[in-house]
């Protein structure tokens, strides 16, 4: 019943904001078009002066946190949405009123198993910030270190599960009613979102992600990751070192302290490529609210990252294909770009390479009419994915996260330093990474990594070789038995056929003799023609079989 009531509310919001106009340009099935025409509010409620994107954004904000975060995720899916819709959804604000301070403190004490005074010298019950999933409080440890305490919003899991069930229902309807629905896999899109949002409910996963990135950039001059206090971290509570940086979007404050903006922008690109290609573990939620800049040493600025609920990872194969795609694209080697998409399995193996190459060239060539500094890596990826979609490219979740992160980094970099040339900054890193991956050092490094395994297995090699030989011998014996059995079977079949034809030959001879019974004293010349034929056939069959 509650789900029905929720669906009714969604339908009411759908009608109020005339979201039916979003479906008019889609290639819907005939019964879906009829259903669209039968929606009576179309003839009563005016569209008004708002754009489709504005109406969709307002509707999602009215439906609440789960739909807001879903809209934020969709804003990165340029393979599913038009540019104007995606840009409007990026404006969605994930800000909700905080829940009661007393209740927040109770949740923290219940998770830690003792009053807050036992762990914190000071604890501010008034939250610093509040979002749809969690809110954050400031506190002070007894050793004088400042920390922030993040606590999951009570009852949010139940709300998420209820709204996720509704989202699945909507996705199934879209898949059934839209001609392209099955290929774009809306149910899988919702499933990816479900995994992401439920991961955010377990703060131990976020803490583990933060610890990993902190370890990857330990003592790095370009990125600082706050320390996680594991002894005070639980599934619904996270305690982390408090930082005092400048929000990266506050350009005026950064300029006021004479921050080297060019260096800051270039270091952002370096951090991205380092996480993706060196570590294969990248912060996938790098919007301005999660990035700060240290106040120390403005001439050599250092980023500070927080909120590690969403991270991405690439396989070695994806890393290699992606780097080679970038390099081939900027060398205008569209044939290689097309072939790499096929070799990686991102598009079907039977794709026409020449047609795919032509399509990529028609989309990408106009980009090179612009100065290199104006070429957007994010738009390059988007253009490639949109072109590949026409050739039945499967949705690649790891690449979607990468595209989202790259768009965030690129937008941030150009906001800090509009003249940023992303290619000039990234090309040396990619070329160096490819050489390290393919060169002699990479082979030596791989052998060095595998050496302990080889040494561990070496004492067992004689036994392994003996077992392998035994298996080969057993296999040969088995094959020999199979061949013998097959030979016997064939011989028996031939024997059966031979017996059959011998009986036919005997029958022919008996029949030939039967035609001469009227005159037992016949001579050869007096035999009837039929006797000759049957007799000859009988003799031949008996002799051959």
Account of the protein in words:
The chain is of the alpha+beta class and 545 residues long. The protein folds into four domains: 1-94, no CATH class; 95-242, no CATH class; 246-438, no CATH class; 480-544, no CATH class. The protein has helices spanning 2-16, 30-37, 52-63, 65-74, 83-89, 101-112, 156-177, 181-184, 186-199, 203-216, 251-256, 261-279, 316-330, 334-343, 353-364, 377-389, 397-416, 422-438, 440-457, 461-514, 529-544, and strands at 120-123, 129-130, 134-141, 146-152, 223-224, 237-241, 246-247, 282-283, 291-293, 303-305, 311-312. The strands form three sheets. Strands 1, 2, 3, 4 and 6 form a five-stranded antiparallel sheet that branches. Helix 1 (2-16) packs across helix 7 (156-177), helix 3 (52-63) runs antiparallel to helix 4 (65-74) and helix 13 packs antiparallel against helix 14 (334-343). The protein is extended and about 125 Å long.
How would you briefly describe this protein structure?
By secondary structure, the protein is of the alpha+beta class. It has helices at 2-16, 30-37, 52-63, 65-74, 83-89, 101-112, 156-177, 181-184, 186-199, 203-216, 251-256, 261-279, 316-330, 334-343, 353-364, 377-389, 397-416, 422-438, 440-457, 461-514, 529-544, and strands at residues 120-123, 129-130, 134-141, 146-152, 223-224, 237-241, 246-247, 282-283, 291-293, 303-305, 311-312.
């Amino acid at each position: 019943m509650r789900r029905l009531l929720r669906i009714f509310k969604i339908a009411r919001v759908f009608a109020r904001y005339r979201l039916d106009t979003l479906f008019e340009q889609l290639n819907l099935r005939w019964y879906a078009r009829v259903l669209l025409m039968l929606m009576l509010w179309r003839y009563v409620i005016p569209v008004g002066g708002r754009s489709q994107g504005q109406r969709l954004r307002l509707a999602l904000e009215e439906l609440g946190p789960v739909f807001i975060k879903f809209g934020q995720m969709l804003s990165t899916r340029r393979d599913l949405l038009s540019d104007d819709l995606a840009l409007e959804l990026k404006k969605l604000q994930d800000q909700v009123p905080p829940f009661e301070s007393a209740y927040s403190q109770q949740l923290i004490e219940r998770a830690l198993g003792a009053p807050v005074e036992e762990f914190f010298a000071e604890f501010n019950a008034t939250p610093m910030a509040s979002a749809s999933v969690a809110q954050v409080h400031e506190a002070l440890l007894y050793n004088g270190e400042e920390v922030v305490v993040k606590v999951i919003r009570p009852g949010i899991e139940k709300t998420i599960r209820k709204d996720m069930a509704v989202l699945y229902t909507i996705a199934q309807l879209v898949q059934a009613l839209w001609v392209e629905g099955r290929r774009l896999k809306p149910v899988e899109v919702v499933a990816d979102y479900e995994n992401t949002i439920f991961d955010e409910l377990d703060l131990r996963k976020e803490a583990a992600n933060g610890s990993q990135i902190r370890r990857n950039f330990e003592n790095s001059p370009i990125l600082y990751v706050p320390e996680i206090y594991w002894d005070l971290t639980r599934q619904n509570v996270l305690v982390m070192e408090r930082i005092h940086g400048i929000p990266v979007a506050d350009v005026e404050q950064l300029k006021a302290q004479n921050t080297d903006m060019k260096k800051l922008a270039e270091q952002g690109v370096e951090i991205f490529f380092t996480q993706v290609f060196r570590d294969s573990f990248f912060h996938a939620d790098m919007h301005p609210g999660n990035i700060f800049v240290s106040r120390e040493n403005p001439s050599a600025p250092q980023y500070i990252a927080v909120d590690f609920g969403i991270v991405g990872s690439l396989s070695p194969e994806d890393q290699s294909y992606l780097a080679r795609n970038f390099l081939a694209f900027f060398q205008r080697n569209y044939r290689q770009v097309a072939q790499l998409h096929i070799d990686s399995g991102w598009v079907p193996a039977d794709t026409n390479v020449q047609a795919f190459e032509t399509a990529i060239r028609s989309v990408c060539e106009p980009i090179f009419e612009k100065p290199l500094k104006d070429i957007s890596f994010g738009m390059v990826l988007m253009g490639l994915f949109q072109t590949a979609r026409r050739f039945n490219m499967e949705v690649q979740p790891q690449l979607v996260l990468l595209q989202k992160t790259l768009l965030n980094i690129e937008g941030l970099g150009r906001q800090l330093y509009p003249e940023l040339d992303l290619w000039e900054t990234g090309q040396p890193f990619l070329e160096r990474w490819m050489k390290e991956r393919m060169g002699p050092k990479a082979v030596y490094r791989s052998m060095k990594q595998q050496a302990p395994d080889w040494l561990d297995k070496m004492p067992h090699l004689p036994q392994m070789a003996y077992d392998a030989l035994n298996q080969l011998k057993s296999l040969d014996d088995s094959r020999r038995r199979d061949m013998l059995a097959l030979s016997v079977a064939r011989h028996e079949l031939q024997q059966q056929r031979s017996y059959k034809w011998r009986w036919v030959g005997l029958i022919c001879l008996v029949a030939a003799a039967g035609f001469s019974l009227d005159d037992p004293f016949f001579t050869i010349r007096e035999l009837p023609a039929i006797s000759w034929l049957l007799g000859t056939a009988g003799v031949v069959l008996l002799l051959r079989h």
